[in-house]
Write a structure and sequence with these properties.
Layout (H helix, E strand, L loop, with lengths): L8 H13 L10 E6 L2 E7 L9 H4 L3 E10 L2 E10 L5 H7 L3 H4 L3 E6 L3 H8 L5 E6 L5 H11 L2 E4 L9 H5 L2
Parallel strand pairs: 5-6, 6-7
Antiparallel strand pairs: 1-2, 1-5, 3-4
Keywords: Hydrolase, Metal-binding, Zinc
Family: Belongs to the cytidine and deoxycytidylate deaminase family.
Cofactor: Zn(2+)
């Protein structure tokens, strides 16, 4: 980037979300999120164990297996999903540590597309837009549909490039 060219706002705030993700100790997926009202940063968060509790890098992942009926190539199949239940997701932490009045009409920038649980929470949080970078295909169709029904702008920044060096720090 040239000296005089400024980053656009989407890039700027997604960069900050990626920086927040560097705080995560999750060995499976490190995620960061920020809450923005207009051009004002109101909060940041990352995924991890509750405060004062050993995280996954110290105590290991606490994996729960779930089965879900999905249509795969025109046939209904039971698909096994594995989720870590030790970790509070970045979006959940963001909602826990920000005020409802600040969320009304705000935008959440998150490194990864929200999972189904986080999408449900965000749908009820008052935010009007969610911007993400990396896909999370396990829940994608359901999440996209939920956001359409709720009227929440839901978009990915496909051509976004995280700050140099940061992506290496947070790779799965």
């Amino acid at each position: 980037m040239s000296k005089n060219k400024r980053k656009d706002w989407d890039t700027y705030f997604l960069d900050i979300a990626y920086m927040a993700a560097t705080r995560s100790q999750c060995p499976r997926r490190r995620v960061g999120a920020v809450l923005v009202q207009g051009k004002k940063l109101l909060g940041s968060a990352y995924n991890g164990a509750p405060m004062g509790v050993p995280d996954c890098s110290e105590a290991g992942c606490m994996i729960a297996e779930e089965y879900e009926l999905q249509n795969v190539d025109g046939k209904d199949e039971m698909v096994k999903k594995q989720r870590c239940i030790r970790t509070i997701h970045a979006e959940q932490n963001l909602l826990l540590f920000t005020d409802r009045k600040d969320r009304e009409g705000s935008t959440v920038y998150v490194t990864d597309q929200p999972c189904w649980t986080c999408a449900n929470m965000l749908a009820n949080s008052g935010v009007s837009e969610i911007v993400y970078h990396r896909p999370y295909t396990k829940d994608s169709d359901k999440v996209i549909n939920l956001m359409e029904v709720r009227g929440i702008v839901f978009r990915t920044l496909e051509h976004y490039q995280p700050p140099k060096g940061v992506i290496d720090e947070i790779k799965e």
